[in-house]
């Protein structure tokens, strides 16, 4: 199951499909993260599977929080992507799709132009 995260210094938001509609698991994760030195607040939304962590970046790095969740078995780092990487992949796909459509239209129009010239 893939996880998406967004991080700005002091705030980490993680989308964890494993806590979606699972209040018990969400509370276990909340307790695990709150026990970390430097974590100031944890709020979660089991309805959406979202976990927001407020932390002091001088005391703990976001990577440490993610590693802790990974070691506890709550997320798979190999299946985790940042929001920036996710947006980049989406933009790349959109650009490739638009390029293909533009190329098809150009080729289609040049074919029609050639046909009209021959007639």
Short description:
The protein is an alpha+beta fold and 119 residues long. Helices cover 49% and strands 23% of the residues.
Total E-strand runs: 5
Average pLDDT figure: 77
Overall radius of gyration: 23 Å
Q: In what range is the share of β-strand residues?
A: 15-25%
Oligomer: single chain
Treating each run of at least 4 consecutive H or I residues as one helix, how many helices?
Answer: 3
By CATH, the topology of the domain at 3-82 is Alpha-Beta Plaits
First-residue to last-residue Cα separation: 58 Å
How would you describe the overall organization of this protein?
By secondary structure, the chain is an alpha+beta fold. The protein has a domain of 80 residues: Alpha-Beta Plaits (2-Layer Sandwich), CATH 3.30.70. It is 49% helix and 23% strand. Strands 3-4-2-1-5 form a five-stranded mixed beta sheet.
């Amino acid at each position: 199951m893939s996880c998406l995260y967004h991080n700005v210094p002091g705030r980490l938001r993680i989308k964890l499909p494993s806590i979606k509609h699972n209040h018990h698991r969400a509370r276990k994760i909340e307790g695990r993260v709150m026990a970390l030195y430097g974590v100031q607040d944890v709020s979660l939304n089991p309805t959406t599977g979202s976990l927001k962590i407020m932390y002091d970046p001088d005391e703990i790095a976001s990577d440490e929080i993610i590693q802790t969740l990974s070691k506890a078995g709550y997320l798979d780092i190999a299946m985790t992507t940042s929001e920036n990487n996710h947006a980049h992949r989406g933009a790349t796909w959109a650009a490739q799709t638009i390029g293909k459509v533009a190329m098809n239209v150009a080729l289609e129009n040049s074919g029609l132009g050639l046909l009209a010239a021959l007639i």
